[in-house]
Amino acid sequence: MNFHLHIPEGQLALHIQSIAYFDAYSPEHEKERLLPDGCQTLIIDLTETPKRIFDNIDLTDKQVCKHYWFSGARNELLTIDAGGINSSMLVINFTFTGAYQFIHHPSEQTKSQVIAADIFFQSQIHSLRNRLLNTREVQTKFSVAEHFLKQRLLDQSPPDAIVHASNLIASNPQTGTLKWISDNSGYSQKHFISLFKKYVGLTPKGFQKVMRFQKAIHDLEVMQSINWTQLALDCGYFDQAHFINEFKAFSGFNPQQYLTEKGPDLNYIPLR
C-alpha cells in the first residue's frame, strides 16, 4: 500500500485534522471493524467497486456505498469492507467540531450514520472526485481537496466554548465532570448540550464515553505490562466491570480479546 498524509494549514487547520490518500491497498482480510473515535469523515473512493457495511452481529449486508460518502460521529463500532483489491481512497478527517463548517447541517443529524455525500455537497463532490481521478501527483490531489474545502468553508466558526469543551473532554476524559464544563461554558446546561450535539454530533456524555475508550486503547498501545484494574481507574471507569462492559460495546471484544485481535493500526480490527 502507498499511504500519504497531509496536514492542512491556515484556516482549514482549525476544522480539518488531516487528509489521507492511499492506493494499491489489497488486505488479506475481507472485513474490518472501525472503532468509534468521536470524529467525522468524508471518504472519496477512487475505484468503481462498491463498498459494503455489515451488521455488527451477524455480518450480513446492511448498506452499500459508492464513490463518496460521509461518516458521522459514532458511539458504536462499524463493520465494513476491508477494501478489496487495489483499493484507493482520499479520506478527509474533520476535527471534533469541524464537519459542520463543510456539510452545513447539524452533526447530530448524522450521528452513527454513513450517508451518500452528494446529499450535502450535490454535484460539487462529483466534480471533486473527477478531478482527483484525473490528477496523478499526490500533492496535487491534496491541493485539489483543499480547494474544494475552502469553497465550502463557512465564515462563522463553531463557538469557542464548544471547541474548548470537546478538546478538554478528549484530552481528559477521566477527570472533572461534565457539569463543571457546562457551567464554565457561558451557556445554560440545556443550550450547551444542544450546541455540543450540533457541532460534535454526540451528547457531551456520549462523547466522554468514546474518549474514555480512546484513552484506554491508546494506553494499551504503550504499556509494557498491564494492570487492568489500574488502567480502568486511570481512564475514568468506576471499576473493572464498568471498563469491560463499555470496552466490549465499543470494540466487540473484551480487553483481553482485543489485544489478540487488533491490527497494527489504531481503531481498526481486521476480521480474519
What this model shows, in words?
It is globular and about 55 Å long. The protein has two domains: 2-152, Sandwich (Jelly Rolls); 160-271, Orthogonal Bundle (Arc Repressor Mutant, subunit A). It has eleven helices and eleven strands. A hairpin with a 6-residue loop joins strand 5 (51-54) and strand 6. Strands 1-2-9-4-7-10 form a six-stranded antiparallel β-sheet. The chain has a five-stranded antiparallel β-sheet with strand order 6-5-8-3-11, with no helix packed on it. The two termini are 19 Å apart. The model has no long low-confidence stretch (mean pLDDT 95). It is an alpha+beta fold and 272 residues long. The protein has helices spanning 100-103, 118-121, 123-133, 138-152, 160-171, 178-183, 189-200, 204-222, 228-234, 240-251, 255-261, and strands spanning 2-6, 16-25, 31-34, 41-45, 51-54, 61-65, 68-71, 78-81, 87-94, 114-116, 268-271.
Distance between the termini: 19 Å
The CATH class of the largest domain turns out to be Mainly Beta
Uncertain segments = none
Counting helices, strands and paired strands, the structural category is alpha+beta
Compact overview of the structure:
This protein has helices at about 100-105, 120, 125-135, 140-150, 160-170, 180-185, 190-200, 205-220, 230-235, 240-250, 255-260, and strands at about 1-5, 15-25, 30-35, 40-45, 50-55, 60-65, 70, 80, 85-95, 115, 270. It has about 270 residues and is of the alpha+beta class.
Compile the SSE list and pairings:
Layout: E1 2-6, E2 16-25, E3 31-34, E4 41-45, E5 51-54, E6 61-65, E7 68-71, E8 78-81, E9 87-94, H1 100-103, E10 114-116, H2 118-121, H3 123-133, H4 138-152, H5 160-171, H6 178-183, H7 189-200, H8 204-222, H9 228-234, H10 240-251, H11 255-261, E11 268-271
Helix pairs in contact: 3-4, 5-8
